[in-house]
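Hi F.,

I've been meaning to write this up properly since the lab meeting, where we talked about keeping a consistent format for the predictions we share between groups. The idea is simple: the sequence comes first, exactly as it goes in, then the structure tokens exactly as they come out, then a line or two of notes. No screenshots and no reformatting. I'm using this chain as the first example so we have something concrete to point to.
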Amino acid sequence: MTFTARSASPTDAASIARIYNEGIEDRLGTFETRPRTAGDIAAWFDGLHPLVVVDDAAGHVVAFASTSSYRTRDCYAGIAEFSVYVERASRGHGAGRLAMQHLI
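Output, unedited:
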């Protein structure tokens, strides 16, 4: 499979929500239980935390990697945690690795 990583934009919010919701349903990478909407994901584009997506050869978003604030305590200022999610059909083909590499 051929993949391309790029910085995400707010127009990718629906695709990111779709992939994240698969992760919630599969219980593989989060304890979250409430599905997310594109509107929920749009809030992630805060200008502070990087967010990348991985497209397949057809331009379909198949994975994403994001960062978010780790904790609100002052001692954690500037520290972020990261997440990587890959759609079910594309798992095991390197899309998640590419997302993480691009995020770094």
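Notes:
The chain has a mean pLDDT of 95.
The two ends are 22 Å apart (CA to CA).

If this format works for you, I'll send the rest the same way.

G.
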